[in-house]
Amino acid sequence: MELPVNLMFVAEGEEELGSAHLIDFVRDRVGKLSRADACLAPGASQNINGEVSMSLGCKGVVEFELVCSGEKWGRGPTERAIHSSYAAIVESPVWRLIHALASMTDPADPTRVLVEGFYDNVAPPTPEDLELVDKLAQRLDEEALRKVLGVKHFYRDLHGRDLLLKALYTTTLNIQGIYGGYTGPLVKTVLPEKASAKLESRLIANQTTKETVEKIRRHLDRHGYTDIQILEYEGQNAADDWSRTSPKAGIVQATIQAYRDFGFDPLVWPYSLGSSPQYMFTKEPLKLPFISAGIGHGARAHAPDEYYVIEGNERVRGLADAEKFYVWLLSKYSNTNLK
């Protein structure tokens, strides 16, 4: 059977590693990719209760590492860990890093970043965004979301519209992990010579990854932490720009109609809370509309027990139904101006 549309597939296996080489792939094939009308990222979009969501973009992200060492500081152990009995007279790089990290957020509200200028370029929700948020607030299954995430409470027990606005329009500064010294079984009496913390910031329009790292650097310097290094994982693409597609785009409206044809009324998100390299397709030079959509259920992304439901049940569709949906979706696209 002949397909009703022309398809170009872009598949890459480095997403969890930062998609380091995808940008090169796109740059090398701009001429070919520019012939496309839109981009679709297939995905299992049903939650555990079977409700369908689709997102029209994503937050950006920049990831980096802070390193505090006695060698750079000129204080504390400078070459190797020493016996902890000297902690009374030798300073600790680990405590110095902890104090530096603590200076970046408000103790009364750890989601509030105190880095000067951190929120300067944050764009407020558009009228289109607020319309989508209001519709989401009426139907968002917060209990299902808590269950999937394994959390008992959201921030300050927000719910509904307030919860969505906080989630979607808050730039984050998250500590992925902290390590230094001995972390094995039982104890080891050492005073470490170095400590590191891996951080990330989730960005929204119109923030940039570059300005975020620069503001962190200035904050550290102004608070006396000029010795703490920022490692940016050069060449690993540990940064993605934010991406947005208008809800008025043809591909969005056609996808919503396809969902309805299958008996679903999708929850349409202005963008997802996570990040992916969508911007490589939605911004210069391609400037294509990009959405994520599909039926079926999967969860625990990036975890060792990430899963996808194959058979389906009375609540969520299985792989066979997902395949049928994509066939129908392509037929809808064939009669639509997708841009």
Can you walk through the features of this model?
- With 339 residues, the chain is of the alpha+beta class.
- The protein has two domains: 15-57 and 245-333, Aminopeptidase; 60-124 and 169-240, Alpha-Beta Plaits (2-Layer Sandwich), CATH 3.30.70.360.
- The protein is 29% helix and 19% strand.
- It is built from eleven helices and 17 strands.
- It has helices spanning 22-28, 30-33, 70-73, 93-102, 127-139, 142-149, 160-168, 209-222, 250-261, 279-282, 319-333; strands at 39-42, 53-55, 57-58, 60-69, 82-83, 105-106, 109-113, 174-179, 190-191, 194-203, 229-231, 239-240, 243-244, 267-269, 290-293, 298-299, 307-308.
- The strands form seven sheets. Strands 4, 8, 10, 11 and 12 form a five-stranded antiparallel beta sheet that branches.
- Helix 5 (127-139) crosses helix 7 (160-168) and helix 9 crosses helix 11.
- It is elongated, with a radius of gyration of 23 Å.
- GO terms for molecular function: metal ion binding; peptidase activity; succinyl-diaminopimelate desuccinylase activity.
- InterPro entries: Cyt/Met_Dipeptidase (IPR051458), Peptidase_M20_dimer (IPR011650).
- One of its GO terms (biological process) is lysine biosynthetic process via diaminopimelate.
- Residues 79-225 form the Peptidase M20 dimerisation domain.
- Keywords: Hydrolase, Metal-binding, Protease.
